[in-house]
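Researcher: I'd like a structural prediction for the single chain below. Treat it as a standalone chain; there are no partners to consider.
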Amino acid sequence: MEYEKTSRNTVKRGRKKASYDKDAIHSILDTNEICTVAFNVDGKAYAQPINYGRSDDYLYLHGSTKNRMTSALMKAGEVCLSVMSLDALKLTRSAFHHSVKFRSAVVFGEVRELTTEEDKLEGLKRIINHFVPGRWDHCRKPNSKELKATRVLEIKITSASAKIADSPPLDEPEDYALDFWAGTIPVKTVYEYPIPDENLKNGVELPSHVLEFYEEKKLKNRRGYWATIVCTSQLQLAGPEAVALFWSANLKC
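Model: Treating it as a single chain, here is the predicted structure.
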């Protein structure tokens, strides 16, 4: 299924990179931790990064009841937010064609404040479980004072689009004869082994849901690592020092 193409979410530049597929867009949202929310206060434009949660076609944000961003979104009744994953830097022979490999999503939605205790807790549950699946069942729930001081917003996704750029570096035909190095520098986010809080109560061990989360991320890191092996054939062209530096850096991960 796809989000309907409208005048707001239709990609104008780089249309070949565009996708309106719901699964693709949801995947980009689910693999990111932070979104950037655009909003307007007194005619001035702002953008704020914030964590979020998702359930089907709904996103959840939270903040203080006095938070400027959430107040502006409630007043507007709608929102535009974005997320992006950087996958690689693309270095080309010409300055003009330098670029990046990335996966991004831009979301438009209707904003509604959750006001009942039940709804607010459900929204916060979505946000907490976006950190680590199952985390909500392994932490203290908000008390009445904390809940009263917290504003929870539900965003119904009305339209969205993704851009996925994964093509190799591209130069002008006449530039391929130039003596400038060109290629790709892969980029990845690495989740390291959980570090216990120094004030952790004696006898409290690392819970299974956190360990499973780490192991899943570690497996994905390894898959990405082995995928970079294909780059070594290209590195051979740069000489043995480049190959040695590549493996030295990656074997530390």
